[in-house]
Design a protein that fits this description.
- With 413 residues, this protein is of the alpha/beta class.
- It has a domain of 233 residues: 3-Layer(aba) Sandwich (Rossmann fold), CATH 3.40.50.1820.
- Strands 3, 4, 5, 6, 7, 8, 9, 10 and 11 form a nine-stranded mixed beta sheet that branches.
- Helix 4 packs across helix 5.
- The longest helix has 19 residues.
- 45% of the residues are buried.
- Keywords: Glycoprotein, Hydrolase, Lipid degradation, Lipid metabolism, Signal.
Length: 413
């Protein structure tokens, strides 16, 4: 009976929302979400209901959509905020379980639009498997085989195809690669496996909270991540390649739950603290609204399992482990090879935070020490006050990080 009621509400809610378009959906304090209507601390934010192209058009006036097919057949969608190459071209890569919207989550104050206003030609990648990049030349996302990819394939194939397209659209301009979390690991793998091509296509890499080593992380999420290979083995038995394959159904039902039980919004915030680092002074309840709190996207179990293997390996940034027999067939050795970080020659800036419990500053320093002198040219920024997600959500992200980032980019030669 309850399920029937929730299903009904899931379809009625969007209709009622479209009729009453000014219904408050964002509040300044978590307690205000209990009574959002006729509450002076709540307001209607139309940006929460806009698509990525709509958001970009609203604030930048122009947007381009580009599709590119990878060597292994995945069709990747990128959004572009064109700017005539006045200062340079920058490619933004997002973290796991999200898509490029995370760089637009804050509307006009988002990083993507901040970079565009500062004069950059901004490209937003959407990793394979996300709702914008869920197509393949001969498979669908409902095929189990579609999800047979990890971080490795995204670094090996996706970045190459994206950069080749960007080069063709920007008269061969070198690109600034900007990655956060999974996005930074993808850039690291690409530049390690294809160093000559990377040196040709990339001007520099800016890598935030790069999940390569996991010796010092204290996040409670590790209790789950370290079991992810076992979870994947079970999911393989039932042929479920992604945990969020039912996302189109989950999101409307979740919106209903959040309206009925708004305390879940604070629970989501607590989960972020447990996952990413305890930074209450950076918490902004306006981001944990009825839409933001359920902001998620598809990823493969194999991607999560790859991170689980890295977490268990602790000090080995290695390729996917298929087991001794398969490793011998694929790699010619029983254990997975390490990614050849010493091959990276692209000037790289690493950024990490003392408050990040998922990707610790010590582990990022370990990564920095593995890089070649050519790659180390921009150093390792060690910042305080932001957890793993606060680069996007923190109240003081501009003062702590964004302003310095813009200064760095404007001085880049």
């Amino acid at each position: 009976m309850l399920l029937t009621y929730l299903l009904l509400l899931a379809f009625v809610e969007p209709i009622s929302h479209s009729v009453n378009t000014r219904r408050n959906n964002v509040c300044r304090h978590f307690r205000d979400y209990y009574y959002p209507d006729d509450n002076e601390n709540c307001y209607y934010d139309p940006d929460t209901t806009l698509s990525i192209p709509q958001l970009i058009e609203k604030y930048a006036g122009k947007v381009e959509l580009h599709n590119v097919t990878t060597e292994d057949g995945y069709i990747i969608t990128m959004f572009r905020i064109p700017n005539g190459n006045r200062k340079g071209v920058i490619l933004l890569h997002h973290s796991i379980a999200t898509h490029s919207h995370i760089y637009l989550w804050q509307g006009n104050n988002s990083l993507a639009l901040t970079l565009w206003r500062d004069g950059f030609d901004v490209w937003l990648a959407n990793q394979r498997g996300t709702i914008f990049s869920d197509k393949h030349v001969n498979m669908t996302k409902y095929d189990f085989a579609y999800w047979d990819f990890s971080v490795h394939e995204m670094g090996l194939y996706d970045v190459t195809s994206e950069l080749e397209l960007i080069q063709s659209k920007t008269n061969g301009s070198q690109v600034i690669f900007f990655g956060h979390s999974l996005g930074s690991a993808i850039g690291l793998i690409y530049s390690a496996l294809k160093p000559i091509q990377a040196s040709k296509y990339l001007k520099t890499m800016i890598l935030l909270a790069t999940p390569a080593y996991f010796e010092h992380g204290t996040s409670l999420v590790f209790l789950f991540i370290r079991l992810s290979s076992y979870i994947k083995a079970f999911m393989d038995l039932i042929h479920l390649g992604s945990p969020l394959i039912l996302l189109p159904f989950i999101i409307p039902v979740s919106r209903v739950f959040l309206r009925l039980f708004p305390f879940i919004l604070f629970v989501v915030n607590v989960f972020v603290w447990q996952c990413c680092g305890y930074t209450p002074s950076e918490t902004d309840p306006t981001f944990f609204n009825y839409d933001g709190a359920i902001y998620a996207d598809n990823f493969s179990w194999k991607t999560l399992a790859h991170f689980g293997q890295l977490a268990n390996a602790r000090n080995r940034f290695q390729m996917y482990d298929y087991g001794e027999k398969e490793n011998l067939k694929i790699y010619g050795q029983k254990i997975p090879p390490l990614y050849p970080l010493q091959n990276i020659t692209v000037p790289t800036l690493l950024v990490s935070s003392y408050n990040d419990t998922l990707v610790s500053l010590k582990d990022c320093e370990n990564l920095y020490q593995q890089l070649s002198p050519k790659a180390k040219v921009h150093g390792h920024w060690k910042i305080s006050g932001l957890n793993h997600l606060d680069y996007h959500l923190g109240l003081h992200r501009k003062e702590i990080f964004v302003h310095e980032l813009l200064e760095f980019l404007n001085n880049l030669k």
